[in-house]
Design goal:
Layout: H1 26-43, E1 49-51, H2 55-68, E2 72-74
Parallel strand pairs: 1-2
Length: 84
């Protein structure tokens, strides 16, 4: 049976009331880097990395994908950014 690792995005730079699709703030970027290290060590070999289309989710997935040299696959059914 396959194992699925799910990670919530790092801390966003703004709340929903302030911005519809905020980037990660500095703390969120650090959280994403730490999560990438933990997951890379735990999983070992590269596996597909998926993300919702939201900026904070993509930015959280990118450090792990970069470590493994894979692209982040965007799963559009997981979120729908709202235009500003």
């Amino acid at each position: 049976m396959p194992t699925i690792y799910m990670v919530r995005h790092g801390r966003a730079a703004a709340g929903f009331g302030e911005h519809a699709d905020p980037d990660l703030d500095e703390v969120g970027r650090q959280q994403a880097e730490r999560a990438a290290g933990i997951l890379a060590d735990a999983i070992g070999a590269p596996v597909p990395v998926y993300s919702s289309p939201l900026a904070r989710a993509r930015q959280t997935a990118t450090p792990l994908a970069s470590r493994w040299g894979v692209d982040v696959a965007i799963e559009s059914r997981c979120g729908n950014p709202v235009a500003d």
